[in-house]
């Protein structure tokens, strides 16, 4: 289904569908925070706004042999990889050497001069790589001249600190995306384009319901949604598995909130409500309330909530269809009755349309090109709702126009009636009254 059908065009839609992405879109900047570059918004960004579209500085294919055993590769590289015991890092170095000189400088510039002093993680990675390389060269002097080991150490450290694994297994380093930190309350999400050039391009959108203000850090979630719905203690256990590490995001720093343990319970209740067959007014209204609770506790787009929206929209559509059938078959005996109340039907139609449209946007911002098949399936349910809503809008406008005309006719009739009364009615006009004392004598000449 085209994105325009389900809610209109959005920034970066061309990139999402596989066309050329707009690389000039950058609504974030790197600033120094807590000793490391942090991506922040350069202005207030609303939900759905595209933050950036970025190509990788360096992308390494998943299979190291594509570099080690290439036709033009040195025949000794496979031997080096076997002795080193780490063909992946060697492939990173070879991919770096294949870059243009200017791109190599851009890549190396990520490793700032003071990074080992301000970033303890980067310092540990660098020291581990340096000591490992020194020990390897001492043990295998025959490979000491094959590559530049100081550059190998630096490139491996950059990849170890800032490298990201893409869905297709390739690994990449980005000038901006590699500095985006994890949060259990993310305000943005990215996806990697599967089609288009260059490979590995990422697009990022704001998914926080209320948007984010200027200067606020842009964060994404590196964990699955099944972990985000857990309480803080359960998240720590699932994310770090007793390693002693902790998450420093805003949600985790605030500590355990009283309402957090009920998030998974709300999802479970919502699942039961949406499984009610046939759906009822009570089950759909309770589902809407549960979604609102989730939006308050987890105020960002989620695939889990998007799926729930689609199921709820389908249930509301089924209620509307059953109500229309009931109106045409008043004598039928069915188990569940749904009244064809005009206002209730109108609200049900509005809710259905909004659920379909927001769910489509959620899928698009979270899944990118993977959402195209889902959007096409949504079209079957959304199409009739969209058409009915257009008819409803036309009817509402016509109803408002007729009401305004009736009001104008009533005012005109009242005015005509007042003029015809000429002072004999209960509310005579000022012109119909006799002149008062002040009006007669306030401009009269003084007596002599």
Question: What layout of secondary structure does this protein have?
Answer:
Blueprint: H1 13-16, E1 28-33, E2 36-41, E3 50-54, E4 58-60, H2 65-68, H3 77-84, H4 87-97, H5 101-108, H6 115-118, H7 120-139, H8 149-162, E5 164-165, E6 171-173, E7 181-182, E8 188-192, E9 202-206, E10 219-220, H9 225-228, H10 232-240, H11 250-253, H12 263-274, H13 281-297, H14 303-328, H15 342-367, H16 372-421, H17 437-441
Parallel strand pairs: 7-10
Antiparallel strand pairs: 1-2, 3-9, 4-6, 5-6, 8-9
Helix pairs in contact: 4-8, 7-8, 12-13, 13-14, 14-15, 15-16
Quick structural summary:
The chain has 17 helices and ten strands.
Give the averaged pLDDT, no decimals.
83
Number of helices: 17
Q: Helices and strands, in N-to-C order?
A: HEEEEHHHHHHHEEEEEEHHHHHHHHH
Give a short account of the largest sheet.
Answer: 3 strands, antiparallel
Quaternary state, please?
single chain
Flag low-confidence runs: 1-22, 332-339, 427-432
What is the percent of helical residues? 40-55%
Query: In angstroms, what separates the terminal alpha carbons?
Result: 95 Å
Please tell me the total number of domains.
Answer: 3
Q: Rg to the nearest angstrom? A: 33 Å
- Protein structure class: mainly alpha
3D shape: elongated
Number of strands: 10
Question: What is the strand arrangement across the widest sheet?
Answer: 3-9-8
Percent strand: 5-15%
């Amino acid at each position: 289904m085209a994105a325009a059908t389900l809610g209109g065009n959005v920034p970066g839609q061309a990139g999402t569908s596989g066309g050329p992405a707009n690389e000039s879109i950058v609504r974030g900047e790197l600033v120094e925070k807590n000793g490391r570059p942090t991506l922040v918004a350069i202005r207030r960004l609303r939900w759905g706004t595209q933050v950036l579209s970025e190509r990788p500085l360096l992308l390494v294919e998943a299979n190291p042999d594509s570099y080690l055993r290439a036709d033009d590769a040195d025949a000794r590289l496979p031997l080096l990889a076997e002795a080193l015991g780490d063909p992946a890092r060697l492939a990173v170095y070879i991919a770096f050497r294949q870059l243009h000189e200017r791109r190599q400088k851009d890549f190396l510039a990520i490793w700032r001069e003071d990074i080992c002093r301000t970033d303890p993680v980067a310092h540990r990675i660098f020291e581990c790589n340096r000591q490992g390389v020194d020990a390897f060269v001492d043990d295998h002097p025959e490979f000491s001249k094959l590559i530049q080991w100081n550059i190998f150490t630096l490139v491996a450290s950059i990849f170890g600190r800032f490298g990201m694994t893409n869905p297709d297994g390739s690994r990449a380093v980005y000038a901006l995306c590699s500095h985006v930190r994890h949060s259990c309350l993310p305000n943005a999400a990215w996806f990697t384009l599967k089609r288009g050039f260059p490979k590995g391009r990422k697009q990022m959108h704001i998914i926080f319901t209320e948007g984010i203000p200027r200067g606020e850090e842009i964060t994404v979630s590196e964990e699955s949604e099944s972990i985000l719905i857990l309480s803080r203690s359960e998240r720590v256990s699932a994310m770090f598995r007793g390693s002693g590490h902790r998450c420093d995001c805003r949600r985790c720093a605030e500590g355990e909130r009283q309402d957090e343990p009920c998030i998974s319970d709300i999802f479970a209740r919502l699942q039961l409500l949406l499984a009610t067959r046939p759906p009822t007014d009570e089950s759909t209204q309770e589902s809407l309330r549960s979604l609102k609770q989730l939006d308050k506790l987890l105020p960002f787009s989620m695939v889990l909530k998007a799926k729930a929206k689609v199921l709820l929209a389908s249930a509301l559509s089924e209620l509307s269809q059953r109500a229309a059938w009931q109106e045409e078959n008043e004598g039928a005996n069915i188990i569940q009755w749904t009244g064809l109340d005009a206002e209730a039907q109108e609200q049900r139609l509005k809710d259905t349309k909004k659920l379909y449209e927001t769910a489509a946007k959620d899928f698009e911002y979270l899944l990118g090109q993977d959402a195209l098949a889902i959007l096409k399936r949504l079209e079957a349910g959304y199409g009739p709702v969209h058409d009915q809503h257009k008819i409803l809008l036309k009817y509402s406008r016509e109803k408002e126009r007729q009401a305004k005309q009736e009001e104008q006719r009533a005012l005109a009739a009242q005015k005509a009636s007042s003029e015809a009364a000429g002072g004999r009615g209960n509310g005579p006009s000022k012109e119909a009254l006799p002149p008062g004392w002040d009006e007669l004598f306030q401009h009269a000449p003084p007596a002599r």
